[in-house]
Structure formats: C-alpha cells, structure tokens
Amino acid sequence: MRLAIIIGSVRQGRFGPTAAAWFHTRACRRDDLDVDVIDLAEAWLPAVMPARFPAFPAEGPAGPPAVESLRPWLAEADAFVVVTPEYNHSFPASLKNAIDWYREEWRGKPVAFISYGEASGGLRAVEQLRPVFTALEAVIVEETVAFYHHRPPADLDAEGLLDALRRTS
User: Fold this and answer.
1) b/e map of 150-163 (b: 16 or more CB within 10 Å)?
2) Residue of 36, 50, 48 whose CA lies nearest to 105
3) Among the listed residues 9, 10, 35, the one whose alpha carbon sits nearest the alpha carbon of residue 24
4) Rounded to whole angstroms, how far apart are CA atoms 27 and 43?
5) Other CB atoms closer than 10 Å to residue 111's CB: what's the count?
C-alpha cells in the first residue's frame, strides 16, 4: 500500500515538516506501507487556474507542468495523511490550491489528518477540510492527531515536542 503524507503549509519556519517527519518515522516501521512525503513548498503549483481549464482537470487537457508532475504521486497513492496548520481558523490557501488542481486522484481514497496550532491544535482547519474532501468523494478518517503548541522553535524536532507535550499534560 502506498501512503502519501502531504505537508500543506508553505510558510517559512512552519512546523509541518517536523510533524510529517514524526509520522513518517512511525509509518515506515510498517512493512506493508510505501510512504512518500509531498511538501507543497517544493511542488510550486500555480496559484491561479486559467479560465480555459476545466472544473475537473482529470477530464480536460493537461495542466501546467508542476501540476502534471505531482499528478502521478497523488494518483499512485492508496491513502493520504494531510498535515495542516490552522491559519485564521482555517487551513492554508496552498493546501486548498493543491486539492483543487486534482479530482480523480482523491476519489475513493482514505484521507487522515495531522493538525497543529495553538488554541485548537489545528482542529478547526481539519473541520473545514472534511467537507472539501467529502465533496471529492474521498473517505475521511475520523480520528485526527493534533499538536497543540505555542510557537515551538523551528529546530525543535518531533520527539522533543512530544517530550514537551508529555511534561505539560
């Protein structure tokens, strides 16, 4: 089974790569999983869809090169884990953009979430992502892993964060 971990934030100093690395380490312990990490900060997806581009890209002409180079990674995945922060009580525009460029790639596949943020641990972002993926006929995993933090240092690794969480809970 192929699992794709998608890092949804593109901001500098983001915690997403740390959370993704934490999960990646655990997922790779399983012999039955091939795990890919897709960092949207490296995907360089266009922020604007051209007017001539169809509402459902898989049914129309090929998209821009960055879109087409990411398409096989998503298409070959059997399941997804989306790592998202909460920005202004929602999820990042970079993540919505990445979701909207594709349709068939999400259909019928499980989507789970790892969220992070301060007061809600990013759970408000996840609550807004659920209907988006449901509209694309993805299968939503109900349980979410949420990291609650107050601006951890960029160099804090996931194990250090977990240790800090254990000390504060």
Assistant:
1) eebeeeeebeebee
2) 36
3) 35
4) 22
5) 22
Work out the burial of residue 52: count CB atoms within 10 Å of its CB; fewer than 13 is exposed, 13-18 middle, 19 or more buried.
exposed
Which tokens in the block code for residue 158? 């996931």
Quickly list H helices, 1-103.
Answer: 16-27, 40-43, 65-76, 93-100
In the structure, how many helices (H) and strands (E) does the chain have? 6, 5
Question: Residue 9 belongs to what H/E stretch?
Answer: none
Residues 39, 17 contacting (CB under 8 angstroms)? yes
C-alpha 58, offset from chain centre:
20
Q: pLDDT tens across 59-116, in order? A: 555 788 899 999 999 999 999 999 999 999 999 999 999 999 999 999 999 999 999 8
> What is the C-alpha to C-alpha distance for residues 124 and 140, in angstroms, rounded to an integer?
15
Phi (first) and psi of residue 166, to 5 degrees: -65, -35
Write down the pTM of the prediction.
0.86
3-state DSSP assignment of residue 8: coil
CB of 99 within 8 A of CB of 138?
no
